[in-house]
Amino acid sequence: MKKMNRFDVFIYLLIVANIIAMVLESHEFIKREIGVFFYYFELISILIFTLEYFYRVYLSYIENRWKGVKSYVFSFFGVIDLISIVPFYIKQFVLIDGRFFRILRLFRLSRIFKLGRDSKSLKLFIKALAAVQNELKFTLFLSLLSILFSASAIYFLENEAQPEIFSSITASLWWATVSLATVGYGDVVPVTAWGKVFAGIISLIGIGIVAIPTGIISASFVEEIHHFRKKR
Questions:
Q1: Which among 40, 55, 46, 61 is positioned nearest to 8, based on CA atoms?
Q2: What is the fold of 6-117?
Q3: Which of 25, 37, 114, 203 has a CA positioned 20 to 30 A from the CA of residue 228?
Q4: Residue range 109-120: average pLDDT?
Q5: Is the model's pLDDT at 214 over the cut of 90?
Q6: Number of neighbouring beta carbons within 10 Å of residue 162
Q7: CATH class (in words) of the domain with range 133-231
Q8: Distance (Å, rounded) from C-alpha 220 to C-alpha 209?
Q9: Which pLDDT score is estimated for 196?
Q10: How much of the chain exceeds pLDDT 70, in percent?
C-alpha cells in the first residue's frame, strides 16, 4: 500500500477535527461559549480544503492533462471534495432562506468520506456497486412500484373507515413506505379486517424487497474481494 505523505495525514486529521467540531457545535452551551472559535476554525479549514481541491485538480492535469482533470472532478472523491466546500461559500455569498443554511451544514459530514481516499476496501465497495448498478436500478423501480401499489390498495381498503388518515393515495404513501421498509412506526395503522390482512402481506413482501438489494450488493462485494485477492 502506498505510504501516505505528511500532507495527506494533515488533511485526514483536519477532517476528523472538523467532524468533532461539528458535533460539539450542536450543543448550545458549548456554542455560546466558543462559537467564534468554531466559525474561524471552519473558515480556515474551508480555505485549506479549497486549496487541496485545486491542488488535486492541478496534479490531475499534470498527470493526464484535461482528461485527468475530468477524471478527478467527476470521480466519487472529486465530487465529495467539492460538496464538502461549496455549501460554505453558498452560505456566505448567496441570500437564501436561513433554514437552508442548516441543511447545507449537513454536507460537512461528507468530509469524512475523504478519509477513505486511500482505502482499498472502500474502492472495492464502490467498484462492487458500479458492477451491479443495473440490478440496483431495477430493484429501485420494483420498490417504487410496490410502494405505489400498496398506497393505492390501502387507500381503497381504508378510506371509508379512516377518511381523515387515508384521504388519498398520496396521503397513503407514508404508510406504504414504512410498511414495505418493515419499520412500522405505528402512527398510521389499518383498522378494517381486509386492511389488516393486506398490511400483513405487505410486511412480509417488504422483508424480501429490503433483502434483494442487500444480497446483490453483498454478493458483488464478495466477488470483488475474491478478484482482488486472486490478482495479488
A1: 55
A2: Four Helix Bundle (Hemerythrin (Met), subunit A) (1.20.120)
A3: 114
A4: 68
A5: no
A6: 17
A7: mainly alpha
A8: 18
A9: 92
A10: 88
